Amino acid sequence: ERQSYVIIIPATLFVILPLSLRRSLDALRYASLLAVLSVVFVVIMYLFFLVRIGKYDEGDGSKHPYGPVEAVTWSAHSINSVTLMVGAFCVMNTCLQVYDEMRVQKRRKIAVATLA
C-alpha cells in the first residue's frame, strides 16, 4: 500500500497537474490519444492472455486456485468506487468548454461526442 504513493505522487505532479493548468483543451488531445491507446493495449493483452491461458477452470485447480466471484462487495475500499463515479460525474462540467473550442459548433456533433 505504501509503495503506491511512489507512482501516484510523481504522476500527479508531472502529468496531471501540468495538463490541468492549460488554458485551452487543445493540449489534451495527445493525452487523450495516449489514454485511448492504453485502453486498447489493455484489451489486446486481456484477449491475448484469455486465448493463451484459456478457461480459468481448467485442470485440477492446484496450480491456480480460483474462488467464487461476488458481483457486489461492500467494504472499506468501496469508497474508491464512489469517488470514481463522482469524478466521472464532475467531468460533464467541461462539456461547455469543449463545445466552445469546437471549430464547427453543432448540437449533433457534441451529442455524438458525449455519447461515444
Share of residues in strands? under 5%
Order of helices and strands: HHHHH
Spans where pLDDT lies below 50 across 5 or more residues: none
Q: End-to-end distance, in Å? A: 35 Å
> In one word, what is the shape?
extended
From the alpha-carbon coordinates, what is the Rg to the nearest angstrom? 20 Å
Q: How many distinct beta strands? A: 0
Q: Please, what is the average pLDDT?
A: 75
Which structural class do the helices and strands define?
mainly alpha
Main β-sheet, in a few words? none
Range of helix content: 55-70%
Secondary structure: elements and pairs:
Blueprint: H1 4-20, H2 29-53, H3 79-90, H4 95-101, H5 107-115
